[in-house]
Automatic annotation (TrEMBL):
NCBIfam families on file: MIP, PRK05420.1
A GO CC annotation given for this chain: plasma membrane
Chief localization: membrane
Keyword entries, A-Z: Cell inner membrane, Cell membrane, Membrane, Repeat, Transmembrane, Transmembrane helix, Transport
Protein name (database record): Aquaporin Z
Membrane protein topology class: Multi-pass membrane protein
Family from the record: Belongs to the MIP/aquaporin (TC 1.A.8) family.
GO molecular function: water channel activity
Organism: Flavobacterium sediminis
Transmembrane segments annotated in the record for this chain: 35-53, 80-102, 131-151, 163-182, 208-228
Localisation per UniProt entry: Cell membrane
Length: 233
């Protein structure tokens, strides 16, 4: 149960910190943090929780990471479903708190017809800059693939694992710097689901892509690292 609570709190912090920065701080005229600030916020959530609870659960905070580590031979398959459930509950709980805070404003309303509503992910008309489904799929696949390579490599028994959290956090920052304009950046099915649940409409109907592309990318990365890159000597 300690591992599951660690995954719950880690994923909660990722969504609350990352999506919260997008909702509260990104768009303030002249003073807002913009895309770069949101990218850094997502990276910092993972970096901080990697050191806070990573030693308890492994610090996945992402169903794609859990499945990628399994594909790389680094995770017990019997723990996959409990981990993913804990991650999704943590993400949805964080989205619920964000909704509660935002609903305190008199003019608050989620416009499900707008791209990026409530920090949701999307493609086509719901991409921040109008990227179509294929572009979104390729971006999410490639970025999750390399995210898993960084995670698996940085936590390899031959690596200097003391700095793994920094490498992983910076990798997630870079991923967001690249892809916020494309999909609002997912690479994390739990993060996508949590926001879409509160938006509903088309963003919720598009959430399938933000499960399939990251999971597929993560699985391929795990297989590639295990068979082509891992040093077994």
């Amino acid at each position: 149960m300690k591992k599951l609570f660690a995954e719950f709190f880690g994923t909660f912090w990722l969504v609350f910190g990352g999506c919260g920065s997008a909702l509260f701080a990104a768009g303030i005229p002249d003073l807002g943090i913009g895309y770069a600030g949101v990218a850094l916020a997502f990276g910092l959530t993972v970096l901080t929780m990697a050191y806070a609870v990573g030693h308890i659960s492994g610090g996945h905070f992402n169903p794609a990471v859990t499945l990628g580590l399994w594909a790389g031979g680094r995770f017990d398959p019997k723990k996959i479903i409990p981990y993913i459930i804990a991650q999704c509950i943590g993400a949805i709980a964080a989205a619920g708190i964000l909704y509660l805070i935002l609903s305190g404003k008199d003019d608050f309303a989620i416009d499900a017809t707008q791209a990026g509503a409530f920090a949701s992910n999307g493609y086509g008309d719901f991409s921040p800059h109008g990227y179509p489904l294929m572009s979104a799929f390729v971006a999410e696949f490639i970025l999750t693939f390399f995210f898993l390579l960084v995670i698996i490599g940085a936590t390899d028994k031959l690596a200097n694992t003391k700095f793994a959290g920094i490498a992983i956090g910076l990798a997630l920052t870079l991923i967001h710097l690249i892809s916020i304009p494309i999909t609002n950046t997912s690479v994390n099915p739990a993060r996508s689901l949590s926001q879409a649940v509160f938006v509903g409409g088309e963003p919720l109907s598009q959430v399938w892509l933000f499960w399939i592309a990251p999971v597929f990318g993560a699985l391929i990365a795990g297989i590639v690292y295990k068979n082509l890159l891992q040093n077994n000597t």
